[in-house]
Amino acid sequence: MPADGPRTEPSLAEIARQWGRIGGVGFGGPPAHIALLRELCVERRQWLTDANFERAVAATNLLPGPASTQLAIYCAWRLRGPEGAVLGGLCFILPGLALILALSALFLSGSPPPWLRGAGLGAGAAVAAVAVRAGLGVAGPIWRRVTGGERPRVLAYGLVAAAVAATAAPALVLVLLACGAVELTWRGLGRGPIGVHAWPLLAASRLAGARRLPGAPHAGSSLARWLLPGTRLVAVSDPGGVGALVWTALKVGALAFGGGFVIVPLMQSDAVNTYHWMTDGQFLNAVALGQITPGPVTQTVAAVGYAAGGLAWGLLAAVVAFAPSFGFILLGAARFERLLADERVLGFLAGASPAAAGAIIGSSVALATGIAETWQYVVLAAAGIALLALNRGVVSTLLLAGAAGALAGLLGAPIPRA
């Protein structure tokens, strides 16, 4: 726990209760999570000062992975150290994770009735519009913050990443890292040691850029053997086995700069095109489930894991995806103040963040290709108007899109099976 710790110290039971409550009612993504955490920690209980909380938000936004999850873990760390961080983080994640796995069993397996399949197809049709809304939400503050001379580079990073997300998503991680490296070089900060407090960026770069020798095991397979010692599920000869799932989840949890929705093109490429765990329609359903359930959108990876291998694989995917967030806080929280002042970390993110925003917007193209029926395009158009022109909420728009799909199923509209 830091020296300038909380004004009062809550019990671990209180952290479990309050962080679990926020995880259970935290619909609306990071803005809602941040507001709920601030209301609890600063305004209602006065466990943290305004300055404490603002620095926490700034520091966790510098890290890859789900920022609001890391903020929940970090606030609990400030209050009760490592024990509080682990307990608070788990209680924040588990309510939404349990719900998304239950809904995955309903939507991604078995043979649900037409109206229920229609609800999934309706909500899934709106996801492409949600991606555009999310990308613009990330891009807007970045664009307003940069100066005129920086804007051509920022625009270039965004356009390149958008094109890659729309056409060649497997290369997206390398593009995000490359944009950060280009910006570092442009600012003349690319030489010399970057500092131990930026180890997650270096580790991500090394992991994503590593090459395999012919016949060598995939990085995900090695990690899976470490996580699951003695397991027989990991087989290098099986390109869609548990090792592949671990690698997908690790990319989602450790290499996603710029907000939760940047994980969508990363997951879609692996889940649909590379390993064929899901159809396009099932993936759209999974993303919609991640949006209408409370908690971080990163838990969408649990739905991907469920489709790949059932409940155990869904839980494994969630464990791997959220493990980096706990690791970043437990190993690096004491150095966060230096992160905020390190020019090289800020320079890297000045390139990676606009690329992430472009990737989110570009993912809408790939998501729209998963639409199969004409009536779904009508739902997509209506969702686009609601989200982009009328500024309606994401959760309410997805629920209405799902209701429209259910009605379409009841009226006999074509409802393809997954």
Count structural domains: 2
Count the E strands.
0
Write down the Rg: 21 Å
Element string (H = helix, E = strand): HHHHHHHHHHHHHHHHHHH
Q: Hey, roughly how much beta strand do the residues contain? A: under 5%
Distance between the termini: 49 Å
Helix-strand makeup class: mainly alpha
Unreliable runs: 193-237
Number of helices: 19
Main sheet properties? none
Helix content: over 70%
Average pLDDT for all residues: 80
Outline type: globular
Please tell me about this protein's structure.
The protein is mainly alpha-helical and 418 residues long. It has 2 domains: 12-95, no CATH class; 99-410, no CATH class. The protein is built from 19 helices and no strands. Helix 2 (30-44) packs across helix 4, helix 4 packs across helix 13 (280-292) and helix 11 (242-254) runs antiparallel to helix 12. The longest helix has 41 residues, at 67-107. The model is unreliable at 193-237 (pLDDT under 50).
